[in-house]
């Protein structure tokens, strides 16, 4: 009996988008139960894919961001050709990623039109309807082009083992036996998406006043360290608040989120990881649209003031006031979070 042909999924470059593409894998697994599904992803995104049970193997892209590197793509495509892929799903909309499965001789190459990719993509989907939420956008690639949007699209799903959570707590000095709240005060997209550090600090103080045994972990990349330092300073440098921005790998951050009693986050990759891990989530939206990329946890709230000027989708507030985030008061967030903590016990 011959082995079922493999399926290749080429990942988006952003962590949040990769997580929101996970339901596509669920649909591919249901349609092709025996076919191994491999994911080709940038190194920064691979830890997220490794926590998805549908993935057989994660391959790291060796390419520099933004560079065509045609010779390198041709060499890598030769390696992919040997793996015997029957189909490739190209999630980035760029020409350079569509080149890879074409050069690899993969017969079925599925993706959106993107950068005039005719021929490179031979099962062409079109996003010519009003912008869809990201999960249905990616999941639609499992069906026929221009098919009606499915009403039963699964939600993103990831998993963390108890061993991974315990190891991450031990490395970061967190007590695995005490309640853990995770804050994600950063946002790669730009400062406009960040809830003010003093607001995060006030929320942390409310949490610790309610439960002195709780601990708060501030997660993010090295770029978020200064923002998390500001949260810590505004909170009075409480011993139960830990600034771990830049101190964990993405895999460790995922493990801590999987262990958390709840997560409060700006619209960022860590928000979507928390949602896929089915943690109680309070998501904070200002310049972005909560309907475009909402959390999907059993206990989830997407908070947005929905001001007249939002969503502007700008990296910096074009009006200079950032009211969409600043006027979202800590007390409002606490009133949303507190019942979640009670329900999650």
UniProtKB/TrEMBL annotation:
Record keywords: Glycosyltransferase, Transferase
This protein's record includes keyword Zinc-finger: no
Enzyme Commission number(s) from the entry: 2.4.99.24
Gene Ontology cellular-component terms listed: cytosol
GO molecular function: ADP-heptose-lipopolysaccharide heptosyltransferase activity
Top-rank lineage group of the source organism: Bacteria
One Pfam short name: Glyco_transf_9
Gene3D superfamilies: Glycogen Phosphorylase B (3.40.50.2000)
GO BP term (any one): lipopolysaccharide core region biosynthetic process
Catalysed transformations (reactions): an L-alpha-D-Hep-(1->5)-[alpha-Kdo-(2->4)]-alpha-Kdo-(2->6)-lipid A + ADP-L-glycero-beta-D-manno-heptose = an L-alpha-D-Hep-(1->3)-L-alpha-D-Hep-(1->5)-[alpha-Kdo-(2->4)]-alpha-Kdo-(2->6)-lipid A + ADP + H(+)
CDD domains: GT9_LPS_heptosyltransferase (cd03789)
PANTHER family recorded: ADP-HEPTOSE--LPS HEPTOSYLTRANSFERASE 2, TETRAACYLDISACCHARIDE 4'-KINASE-RELATED
The family this protein is said to belong to: Belongs to the glycosyltransferase 9 family.
Protein name as it appears in the record: lipopolysaccharide heptosyltransferase II
Organism: Pseudoduganella violacea
Lineage per the UniProt record: Bacteria, Pseudomonadati, Pseudomonadota, Betaproteobacteria, Burkholderiales
